[in-house]
Amino acid sequence: MMIDELEFRDVIQKISKPNEWVHLISVVAEGQKLRLTEDLRKLNEHVPGRSNLSPLPKMQSHSIHQVRISPPSSTSGVEYNHRGDESLAGIDNTEKVVGDIILYDSSMHLHEKNVRKLLDRCRDTEITVNPNKIHCGKTEVKFSGFRVKL
């Protein structure tokens, strides 16, 4: 999505003077695409919620992104997290932190079964899975800022 489109959809807004509620973003080029990034640590100090999860051993990683939210929505992050949590409820050995999902099992057979269940659930609830961010059968993955090893 280009900056002009984000502005048109009221996701971002240009400002020309000091404002009480401003949050910085960065735009990063990823090949031919632009990616909007942000550091929400300071903002999160003012919003109650769950703390980061501690990673558990023997986990596999999957990442998701993009859910449809009717603009304009000042609570789109909250809605994104809530919809993701609801969508993945009941899938064994799965943890989610914002847009990162990690799925871990005690055997490859169980893992394959739960990966299929996770992908089916994502399809059914219109969660877009980025195939470039799926990692199966790895002994080490990155998850929510942690390096997780078997």
UniProtKB/TrEMBL annotation:
SUPFAM superfamilies: DNA/RNA polymerases
Coiled coil (residue ranges): none
Biological process annotations from GO: DNA biosynthetic process
Segments of this protein annotated with the region Disordered: 47-79
InterPro entries named in the record: DNA/RNA_pol_sf, Rev_trsase/Diguanyl_cyclase
Name of the molecule in the record: (salmon louse) hypothetical protein
Highest classification ranks of the organism: Eukaryota, Metazoa, Ecdysozoa, Arthropoda, Crustacea
